[in-house]
Amino acid sequence: MQDDFCSIAVLVSGGGSNLQSILDHIQQGHINANIACVISSNPNAYSLVRAKQANIPTHVIEHTRYASREAFDQELVRTLEVYNIKLIVLAGFMRVLSNTFITAYPGRILNIHPSLLPKFPGLHTHQRVLEANETEHGCSVHFVTANLDQGPLVIQAKVPVKTTDNTERLAARVLEKEHIIYPLAVKWFSQNKLICLDNAIYFDNEPLSTHIILTTKHEIELQ
Ligand code: GAR
User: Fold this and answer.
1) What is the fold, at CATH topology level, of the domain defined by 6-220?
2) In degrees, to the nearest 5, what angle opens at C-alpha 109 toward C-alphas 136 and 196?
């Protein structure tokens, strides 16, 4: 394996549709990378079934078994040591990471969040968007820093909020976009097109002053 090859660890807690979309694009040859392992904070996560079906090594690390956030994060770092990981992908991983983990992978942790950050950080984003009568919603991929949902933004996809929407319909429309922007960001990172240094993003070797908004032009890149 080349040094430059993008070996990925995916951290999950739930269903794993984002894990699956990245995996599908790797298997179809659209992303030149490898998912070296999947770590779940939840022993019952369907993500684990998806990983096993794809013969990806899995680990379950339950936070309830650790006395502190740091101890949990140290176990994550220890588990990942045997893999030569270039990129950490948080895909519905519902734990806040401490500096113990973040400093082990500087500029190399991506997260997807179901809102147009900086709007609606945290939980229950779809419900809060409906309650706030927003006309637009979406999802964001960003690099992870010590501040929850506040790391530098890479790409967002927008969806209109319809008067007929409920939480489920809106979430489904956003998730469809997540399945495009996350593989795209992973692809760009694996190509060294997307780099994060000292909390600043570089895209095609130029500072990225404003994050990217998904257009059909980008969707073609994912082929
Ligand atoms: C996704 O909607 C993702 O954006 C969200 O969890 C869901 C996981 O779905 N992540 C967060 O809320 C993180 N703050 P998946 O397990 O089907 O990929």
Assistant:
1) Rossmann fold (3.40.50)
2) 85
